[in-house]
Write a structure and sequence with these properties.
Helices cover about 80% and strands about 0% of the residues. It has nine helices and no strands.
Length: about 210
Amino acid sequence: MSFNLILIASATIFIASIIPGPSMLLALTHGIHHGARRTTVSAMGNATVTLIQASISLAGLGTILFTSEIVFQLIKWAGAGYLLYMGISLLRSSEMFVAPTATTGLIEQTSLRKLYLQAVFVTAGNPKAIIFFTAVFPQLITPNASYLLQFVILISICVSSTFCCFMIYAVGGQKIASLFSKAAVGRYIKGVIGGTFIGAGISLAVSNK
């Protein structure tokens, strides 16, 4: 794989990852609510699933998923259901979006395992990521070069890009958390983000490939 292809792969995957979506919305939410440091665990959950999705695509299994309507729909509906659950839970929660320093007790109640699993479920619920990788990877692989080396390079780019994008949103969320210190503002932001999760779930449920 040439240096130019590596740059193209990095730019393509980074741009696709930084575009606002359920995972980045979760990163922003965790950044606001738990701070960037704890959200690193969420980013690891996102990166873990990205590693699996990219590996599936490079192994050629992404094509099977793309052509299997039943498998695709099952994953899609599971992801849509979890997004709806996240949105409804957020709207029904009594917790406010406030600066992490003002919610020490709340932060301590949220386990790192829960943060990690939330990111895993949200990321895994989007089968279109596998289809994206399946469509992009063949354009980046050099036939005469070592497949294993290219596999490692592309996987590394995917994992590092998604991790960095997740943390960009998390840091951004932490930076603006102080703006939500007032209860009224916190309720408004909670409603907006909860509604967005619900909207994303509905959008995923009704979307076609």
